[in-house]
Amino acid sequence: MPRLLLFLILVAVAVIVYALIDCIMTKAHSVRSISKPAWIVTIILVPLLGAGLWFLFGRARPSGTPGRARPAPRHPTAPDDDPQFLRNLEAKRRQEARQKEARRKEQELRAAQEKKDRAAQQKNDGEADNEPGGQTA
Domain spans of the chain? Predict the structure, then answer.
């Protein structure tokens, strides 16, 4: 008889601890009936009855059970399914294209300026050779 009583006490403690840990680990939005803190207090203050009520009324339903189940939030599974990732990718592509175009225009302007400077230098060199007033022969 004492062994049976000890066994029943151990089973009761195990059920209470399991119910308490299960309640603590469950996400707040998945808890049914009353709030999560209220379930924790119920399991602690009314041990066996609280644990039994938790398993019957508070725990989230398994996915196969019919009833009012909340749909799981949908998240993209791959980067190319994520609209934010695709927008970011497109923005980077446009930015790189603008930078490439800006570099190309900068090189064109630099080349045009160098050509203009060379032409001005040649004109100045040509005028310096043709100036009278140096030595007369």
Answer: 10-58, 79-121
